[in-house]
Amino acid sequence: MQNHKTMENQAQKESYQQKIQDQLDEWRSDIDRLKEKAKNATAEQKLKYQETIDKMELKMDEGKSKLKDLKESGADAWDAVKEGADSIWDTMKATFAEVKERLRDKDDIEPVEDKKA
Question: Which of 23, 51, 74, 112 has the fewest Cβ atoms surrounding its Cβ within 10 A?
Fold first, then answer.
């Protein structure tokens, strides 16, 4: 029988996983919109868009991998896994926020610098 702390951790874990999945879905939409913008861009702009899209998709893959780790972790061990995930999410949020800001400011986009935590 699970103790109260384990059940509480499991509930927190599931809530956190859903939050991460929702954020990944939102970022996937952002990437798809960026791909649409790239279709109508000049050749030079398309290269810049593609660089940015590639970096964003790399971050998405990192996020999906960390989400998988979270799902596979036991309720008792998830606190340790969550700490690593938080670091990746902070980096991803900064990257995606920077891209959104650039898209808001102008139609042209500069490649996003890869931010390391």
Answer: 74
